[in-house]
Structures
1.
Amino acid sequence: MINSDIKVGIICPLDIEYKSCKKILKLHHETELAGRLISSRREKDIEVIAVKAGVGKICCASAAQLIIDKFQPAYIFDIGAAGSLSEELNINDIVCGEYSFEYDACTGKKLGKTPPDDDKTFTVISKPPCKKVFQEFSSWVRETMGMTIQFGNIACGEKDVKNTEFKQKLRQELDAITCNWESSAVLKTAQINGVKSFSLRVIVDFADESMNDDFNANCQKALEVMFPVLNEFIFEGWINRI
């Protein structure tokens, strides 16, 4: 890889997420690193490295650490599909995460809206100056690309959220608007290493009894909505303002 001013690591859990990322962000130079596929693109002062991490916290945490150790990125992105916990979110809406909560690490406890710090992870969007930039970007996206970005908390755990009762519990106790398996692992790894992180997830299901069918029906199209937005943020000057 060629040295550049800003390096960005993208952690892709699923094969479909990695392939969409590679295609839409026009990543090339695919190779294998420590048993994982990686691809990259360098343009002007930006270099992006995406990794096919594998599903779950362990795979994504170790992939994030690999990218950090090998490439020393300034930013790590947690990306992919997610379920909606909020009635205000629709399929293909994009969620920019502020905090991620590990609900599966809190079994038997009432989580509340201020869980222990060990179960809570932040992104750069939790900082007002950074959030302001992304809010300006989200307005631009809505006006020019016709897509919706919302901000909120993530409920993260290695358990599918596919019933209404559990969905409501996570919404109420964590004030979370979306859920997935891996965000906390990626964001916590970045946080431990002092690397700035983002979480950008696209809604593919409503975290209810139809979760599996909705995921299969919507995932590919939703990723095709999200990755052009990510491409604009990284390569068109927005990330330089963070």
Note: The mean pLDDT is 93.
2.
Amino acid sequence: MSGAKYRDLSQLLAFIGAHSNGVTVKQVMHETERSRATVDRMIETLRSMQLVERAPPNGADHHRTVRWKACLKSNSRSDLPTDLSYSERSDLERLLPTLDDREGKSGLMKLLSREKPLNLSAIYDLSELVERDANVGRIGPQNIISKETREIVDEAIKGFQKISFVYRDELTARTVSPAGILFARFTYLVGFDRTEIPKTFLMDLISSPALLDEMVELPQDWDFKSWSKRSFGVFHGDVATPVSLLFDAEIASRVKKVKLHHSQQISDQKDGSVLVKLFCCGHSELLHELMHPDWAGRVRIIEPPELINKLEDYLRHIREKNRPPRD
């Protein structure tokens, strides 16, 4: 093996080993700037050397997506004084994508690739943040999810098992086939109970979770990733509808750098404004986004009329709620 090839394979192994939930071929192509055929050959070489193996699927992955992770035998930790703690590994993984310096990024990947990966509970844990050494933080409201809930939900998804839990203030537990996790303003479990329609459950409102010895029951023609893309946000209660939004010229450049939805199509208008067309459900959350200071007062809903009416109702309820009390 040539020195250059050995170096490339070593860097690839470090990159794969630095991610607890594994990496996809597309991620490797983006990181190495190599073609699909070249990346496939490199991964196959590492696999034949028993240095990488298939990783469990991510909850948001398409069912055909393949992830690769470093084998435990490739994580030689004998020359390190101690293993990284749970919090240290969690923080360092969140630090990794923020680094611009290639040397620093390479060094951190080498360190992480030598350490034991995080379990799924830690991967999905959004409350673990980089706040000690990195200039990175998270703002806004966050939901607090118990460690017990995280671990049982993660184990159920990984093992394709049903779970039971009490939701909100219900008196009896419900049985759910978990399908995946949605990360938005808060963290949601997506699953099926007694119907063929997927439901979303706020993770912080789940209590008394228990892992059941029953295999999940999911609709055969249902795909988590495709379903999650249909909506603007978490909720899927309404029907997917064409939406046209006209953003003022003064924020046109900003709009072009933001991906509101995977279906969006942007076209420039003669007056400098931009027309954004979407096809989605989750219109309540779309209205909340349009109320954000970045857009509020500088965007007009062209269609559908139902969305305009919904906005008027929304604003009327806000005015009524905040009307000063009469003496």
Note: The radius of gyration is 23 Å.
3.
Amino acid sequence: MLTAYRGTGKTWAALSIATAVATGGQFLTFEAPAPKRVLYIDGEMPATQLQDRIRRILPLMPDLDPNFLEIITPDLQERALPDISTLTGQIELDDWTHRADLIVVDNLSSLARTGTENEAESWTAVATWRCG
């Protein structure tokens, strides 16, 4: 889990991690031994901004197979993204999550909308999510 103040680069770091895993590449001192399928679920940022950021990261990791990095953003969906803190919301994402080896959620506050953010009990459904 990445935490920091707004505007400090959490999404850049998350996208870099996702791209490194999808390419079998490296981010900072961590190296992915082989490419893995990554699902990146973003609850706020428009797809065009995410695509622009990925284009800036790709020169560092040029071997990206597009099938290994799938992105879900609200603006590319016909309706609101599901609430991942509910079983119904998690099931709605099954078509995507079952194909992924790694799921990146950016950010929990925008995608887990049920319960109280600062109460541990509210996170139980997310913590026990069995994707796919």
Note: DSSP finds six helices and five strands in the chain.
